[in-house]
TrEMBL record:
<comment type="subunit">
    <text>Component of the replication restart primosome.</text>
</comment>
<keyword id="KW-0347">Helicase</keyword>
<keyword id="KW-0235">DNA replication</keyword>
<feature type="binding site">
    <location>
        <position position="523"/>
    </location>
    <ligand>
        <name>Zn(2+) 1</name>
    </ligand>
</feature>
<feature type="binding site">
    <location>
        <position position="563"/>
    </location>
    <ligand>
        <name>Zn(2+) 1</name>
    </ligand>
</feature>
<comment type="function">
    <text>Initiates the restart of stalled replication forks, which reloads the replicative helicase on sites other than the origin of replication. Recognizes and binds to abandoned replication forks and remodels them to uncover a helicase loading site. Promotes assembly of the primosome at these replication forks.</text>
</comment>
<keyword id="KW-0862">Zinc</keyword>
<dbReference type="InterPro" id="IPR011545">
    <property type="entry name" value="DEAD/DEAH_box_helicase_dom"/>
</dbReference>
<feature type="binding site">
    <location>
        <position position="529"/>
    </location>
    <ligand>
        <name>Zn(2+) 2</name>
    </ligand>
</feature>
<feature type="domain" description="Helicase ATP-binding">
    <location>
        <begin position="288"/>
        <end position="455"/>
    </location>
</feature>
<dbReference type="Pfam" id="PF00271">
    <property type="entry name" value="Helicase_C"/>
</dbReference>
<dbReference type="InterPro" id="IPR014001">
    <property type="entry name" value="Helicase_ATP-bd"/>
</dbReference>
<keyword id="KW-0067">ATP-binding</keyword>
<keyword id="KW-0547">Nucleotide-binding</keyword>
<keyword id="KW-0413">Isomerase</keyword>
<dbReference type="Pfam" id="PF17764">
    <property type="entry name" value="PriA_3primeBD"/>
</dbReference>
<dbReference type="Pfam" id="PF00270">
    <property type="entry name" value="DEAD"/>
</dbReference>
């Protein structure tokens, strides 16, 4: 007998696989999606291994194969196991990243009445439940909706104990299926249909219209299209069917996302010598890559140096080899721009995958990729898990961006790390691109682990255009001189000149909302979130207070909750407030704002980008989304309202993030006809990150940052993991964290390990979130992941391996 080791879709399963018997005649292989009994439920699972001996003595038989059959490739299975092991993440969640959209379904409970007589005392609620139970089974959720979930659970448990009801489980129905469309097809030739239509023009004009349209459309049209053009045609279609002139069939009709129109690129631009050198290296890497040995390239090119053109040429080379390509961007908002360029160069071959597509659109794009119909996949981090079985090239644009790190729900993977592993499994090449590379990536490149490719020159309509000059304004001096405005005198002068000259302007400020906190002027109380105990931000457009950590909304208080004073002051600055001030200072200008509040709809970000690019606005105000890779030729001036917003966070990457944001947003200026310039306002102009960004000097920043990391043992000179405990009681959360540290310290002593140290436990930077107190223990040193994997930590902990920061 053969046995399957299965990862089960249940929180209790954690990082473990469970042993199941494979029934005779059932063909099961690693990667197969199966149904398994788990407790009283039937749940989804993925087979990890097939062996002759089980790992556990007690086994149960597999319940069956999931239909239609789904099986991860060996490369996907290996990469998923790596994710679970490296990030200490639940096993099923790590493997499920490659499953089709809508695959995961939970077990639903059904309640049935038994034949046992009710000879025990029942509560009124229990009697009511028994009274509504039909002869057949009913879903438990239906009972909970009728009687209330909180009360129904205990009542059902008592009825189960008394043997009056039975409870069984089954998987919920499939959430998504292929879409079917009714299509009308001619049963006669097009010429015969046209002749017949001519004879029906007077006595049956609607039938004639249908036949004429079908004759001019190769004999087939979707019924929905004909209805949009002709109205209600049911009777006419039925008549023509009875005459055997046409037929109505059902065909599968893929749901296609609304892609941006392809850009007009009549000629492929000639590559510069630097671009050609980089492309040659990547193409050679594509030719030599084999499973187990995948080349990684870091394309370090200044903003506007033509990195995308290298991506396009490398993609063309991969496609010529019959391979598929994944193009990753850090945010959904950036897919619009890069999809335009790729669809222009490779029409009909581009798929888009991201969370703002409908479930049906994602499902159909996923299937088209899996079937080989689309061989270029574009999207944010989730696009990495597209079913590209012939994967040859992965491109990560803006590879330094923090958005490539999954931060909400496990597995808390970093896309760059997983992309490197996936490329290794498939024998594909990985191309990382950035004007401001991640310090760890650049260190790997200069030490030879990656191959470093350089694009040092800007490509604009003017030959040898330098990076835009940056003026640094000391806001402390502005205050001393009596200027209390958001805008320094230099920035206001430059904006006035730019608007007069017909140039577009970007104003960057990395905080959304209208005011960053609300304070009582009498007692000093700051209005805080009930769940997180953090200051609430004021959003004037919605006219409400919002917690930027749990997104809870609150009504505006009329009085202070402590002293009942009405003297409440709105303090601080956000993008909505900046928009108001800009309209006040420049009333004739046309202004757009781009932040997560303004771009909530499915295509809102695309709309804002297109409106600004087409010249329908003069000033674009935004958060970090406006700093990320946008190509806006009309922008002549960039203003950074405050360079210090992230500089003083208790985070070892604060300097790096500040440098990257400033350098990236500065790079939006001067990419077209206008000579660019940048004004950066700061209260800390002497900080090394600000000074290096002003000078466009990545090498200077990198060296200072590397010295700092080396001194403190931070990446790339050591590994990090953050263990977070959560509890509604602060003392209990702290006690759990202390127990974990004690356990890990004992492990170090018992195994005689050195080179690993602990920081904390201490309250997290956000000490209370969503009603739970949070304490963090930081583990730092060499081979941290291996140490934690062997430590036997309890389930339910939040463990973030390779965290973006410590805040």
């Amino acid at each position: 007998m053969l046995y399957a080791e299965v990862s089960v879709n249940a929180p209790a399963a954690g990082r473990s696989a469970f042993s199941y018997q494979i029934p005779a005649g059932m063909n099961v292989r690693p990667g197969q999606a199966v149904l398994v009994p788990f407790g009283q439920k039937i749940l989804q699972g993925i087979v990890i291994e097939v062996a002759e001996q089980p790992r556990f003595a007690e086994t149960r038989p597999l319940d069956g194969l999931i239909q239609p059959p789904i099986c991860l490739t060996p490369q996907q299975l290996a990469a998923g196991l790596f994710i679970s092991r490296h990030y200490l993440a639940p096993l099923f969640a790590s493997l499920a990243l490659w499953l089709p959209p809508g695959f995961e379904r939970q077990a639903a409970a059904e309640i049935c009445r038994t034949s046992q007589p009710a000879d025990v005392a029942l509560t009124p609620l229990e009697s009511a439940i028994m009274a509504v139970l039909p002869d057949t089974c009913i879903g438990q959720k239906a009972l909970e909706q009728q009687f209330g979930a909180a009360k129904t659970g205990p009542a059902l448990r008592h009825l189960l104990e008394q043997g009056l009801i039975d409870r069984s489980y089954h998987l919920a129905p499939t959430r998504i299926k292929p879409r079917l469309e009714r299509v009308i097809i001619l049963n006669i030739s097009a010429d015969a249909a046209a002749d017949t239509a001519a004879g029906l023009t007077i006595r049956a004009p609607r039938q004639a219209d249908i036949l004429f349209r079908l004759a001019n459309s190769r004999g087939r049209l979707p019924l929905s299209e004909l209805r949009r053009e002709l109205g209600d045609i049911t009777s006419s279609v039925n008549t023509l069917k009875n005459k055997r002139l046409l037929n109505v069939i059902e065909e599968e009709a893929p749901r296609v996302p609304c892609l941006p129109a392809a850009m007009e690129l009549p000629l492929t631009p000639a590559l510069t010598a630097a671009q050609q050198s980089a492309l040659t290296a990547v193409n050679q890497g594509l030719g030599t890559a084999v499973p187990g040995r995948a080349p990684v390239f870091l394309l370090h090119g200044v903003t506007g140096s033509g990195k995308t053109e290298v991506y396009l040429h490398a993609t063309a080379h991969a496609l010529q080899q019959g391979r598929q390509v994944i193009i990753l961007v850090p945010e959904i908002a950036l897919t619009h721009q890069i999809v335009e360029r790729f669809t222009a160069r490779f029409p009909g071959r581009v798929a888009v995958l991201h969370s703002r597509l409908s479930l049906g659109e994602r499902f159909d794009q996923w299937r088209a990729i899996a079937e080989g119909g689309l061989d270029i996949v574009i999207g944010p981090r989730s696009a990495l898990f597209a079913p590209a079985a012939r994967l040859g090239l992965i491109v990560m644009d803006e590879e330094h961006e923090w958005a490539y790190k999954q931060q909400d729900t496990p597995p808390l993977y970093h896309t760059r790390t997983v992309a490197r592993r996936l490329a290794q499994e498939y024998g594909a090449a990985l191309l990382l691109g950035s004007a401001t590379p991640d310090v760890e990536s650049y260190h790997l490149a200069v030490t030879g682990r990656y191959q470093l490719l350089e694009l040092p020159d800007r490509l604009t309509p003017h030959v040898n255009t330098p990076l835009p000059p940056v003026t640094l304004v000391d806001l402390r001096q502005e205050l001393k001189s009596g200027n209390l405005s958001i805008f320094s005198r230099r920035l206001k002068t430059e904006m006035t000149a730019a608007l007069r000259n017909g140039e577009q302007i970007i104003l960057f400020y990395n905080r959304r909302g209208g005011a960053t906190f609300i304070q009582c002027r009498d007692c000093g109380e700051v209005i805080k979130c009930h769940n997180c105990r953090l200051p609430l931000g004021y959003h004037p457009v919605e006219n409400r207070l919002v917690c930027h950590h749990c997104n809870a909304g609150y009504r505006l208080p009329e009085t202070c909750p402590v002293c009942r004073s009405r003297r409440i002051k709105y303090l601080g600055l956000g993008t909505q407030k900046l928009e108001e001030e800009t309209r006040r200072e420049f009333p004739e200008s046309r202004i757009l704002r781009w932040d997560s509040d303004a771009a909530r709809g499915k295509d809102a970000g695309y709309r804002i980008f297109d409106e600004f690019r087409s010249g329908k606005a003069d000033i674009l105000i935004g958060t970090q989304v406006v700093a990320r890779g946008l190509d806006l030729p009309g922008v002549g001036l960039v203003g950074v309202i405050n360079a210090d917003t992230a500089l003083n966070l208790p985070d070892f990457r604060a300097g790096e993030r500040t440098f990257q944001l400033l350098a990236q947003v500065a790079g939006r200026a001067g990419r077209g006809e206008f000579a660019g310039r940048v004004v950066v306002q700061s209260y800390q102009p002497e900080h090394y990150a600000v000074a290096a960004a002003v000078g466009h000097n990545y090498a200077e920043f990198y060296q200072k940052e590397l010295d700092y990391r080396r001194m403190l043992g931070y990446p790339p000179f050591g590994e990090l993991a953050v263990i977070t405990t959560r509890h509604v009681r602060e003392a209990e959360s702290l006690r759990q964290a202390q127990n974990i540290k004690q356990k890990l310290t004992g492990q170090l002593d018992a195994r005689g390990l050195t080179g690993i140290s602990f920081i904390g436990p201490a309250p997290a930077f956000v000490p209370r979130r969503r009603g739970c107190y949070r304490f963090q223990l930081i583990v730092k040193g060499a081979e941290v992941t291996d140490f934690l994997n062997r430590a036997g930590l309890p389930a339910g902990l939040s463990i973030d391996v390779d965290p973006l920061g410590l805040s």
